[in-house]
Write a structure and sequence with these properties.
alpha/beta
Length: 352
């Protein structure tokens, strides 16, 4: 998957299941990933774990909030890499718990997992999290959503953007932004946004608007003034808002795709899920600290209302939007092989 300008779409750590390998080089990388974490590779390697080794949580860099990982209880240890496909076989051999975004669930489905066994936590989930799980089919019992963040528009304030930002996602088609938008390195997300715009040839028009498809470096593109708009998960925006008053974030009134963080247990581990650690992220004061970073616990809004007044006023409706807006947000379940092929063909056909 290589856009006309910019790096391969497979190069971003947020490529996720939403990316379909559409060129030969990306197919090689996908096979390499499956060899490392999927099928017999991870199944057999986990079984080789020797006794006496501390339980290990594996998470790609940036997937879990730093303040939460620092609270990981003893004797658990965290192992991370820049991206899921950079884990080595030696790393994977020690996995007792996996963390990833929903984008990798298509790949995770090839890994032998066991039920997450976390009924007390599941019983606390909000309706959006429950709908997300229902869409996962057989995988639903084997993952636990622990955090969620909507995809949003991160913009640099200027007269052009200020005049059109109330259009929400529709602003992505504005001719004044042609060549100045950084889209995710994920055809799935871009196609989903195009379909929600309900405009003739919306996908092809969106692709013509792109500066590049590189959400991993999206903030840098914005800071260099090469881009005016970047599509990112909210959890990757708020730290920039704190330090740069030129920036703004837009959560469109139409709702937004949701970016989920999940945990899963490899089949051969004997380590139970550290439920108290998850509970810590869902309780004050950690819950509020994570919320201030745009990382929302998947709990009902009524539970999170206690945190609202302790958020900066300018962020309250962004981090904790009204229920009617929050309920307009939607999840992107893993694609079937047939759906991947179909969307891949559509992506190729939409090239400008």
């Amino acid at each position: 998957l290589r856009p006309r300008d910019g790096p391969s779409l497979e190069s971003s750590h947020n490529v996720d299941f939403m990316t379909m390998p559409l060129d030969p080089s990306s197919g090689i990388r996908r096979r390499h990933l499956l060899q490392m974490i999927g099928g017999a590779g991870l199944i057999s390697l986990v079984g080789c774990r020797s006794g006496g080794v501390n339980p290990r949580l594996f998470a790609p860099a940036g997937v879990l909030p730093k303040s939460w990982t620092m609270a990981l209880p003893d004797p658990w240890q965290l192992t991370s890499a820049k991206a899921l496909d950079q884990w080595t076989q030696a790393d994977s051999a020690q996995a007792d718990l996996l963390a990833c975004t929903d984008g990798w669930l298509g790949t995770l489905s090839a890994v032998a997992l066991q039920p997450i066994e976390a009924a007390p936590l599941r019983n606390q989930l909000d309706p959006l999290a429950l709908r997300f799980l229902e869409a996962l089919g057989p995988l639903a019992s084997k993952v636990l959503p622990v955090g969620v963040s909507p995809w949003v528009l991160l913009v640099r304030r200027n007269p052009v953007v200020d005049a059109i930002k109330h259009g929400g996602w529709q602003m992505l088609l504005d001719p004044q932004l042609q060549g100045q938008i950084v889209f995710p390195a994920s055809p799935r997300v871009v196609i989903e946004l195009a379909d929600r715009l309900d405009q003739p040839d919306a996908l092809q028009r969106l692709r013509r608007q792109a500066l590049t498809f590189d959400d991993r470096q999206g903030v840098n593109w914005l800071l260099k003034s090469s881009a005016k708009v970047v599509v990112l998960p909210l959890q990757r925006c708020l730290s920039l808002l704190r330090r740069d008053p030129r920036m703004d974030v837009i959560l469109p009134n139409q709702g937004a795709p949701l970016h989920w963080t999940v945990l899963a247990r490899p089949e051969d581990t004997q380590e139970p899920l550290p439920q108290q650690w998850v509970e810590q992220a869902w309780r004050e004061p950690m819950r509020r600290r994570l919320l201030q970073d745009g990382w929302r616990a998947p709990l009902p809004t009524a539970v999170l209302e206690a945190d609202r007044l302790k958020l900066p006023e300018r962020w309250r409706s962004l981090v904790l939007p009204p229920d009617d807006l929050w309920n307009r947000c939607w999840s992107l379940p893993p694609l079937s092989p047939e759906q991947s092929v179909s969307l891949g063909e559509r992506w190729r056909a939409s090239a400008p």
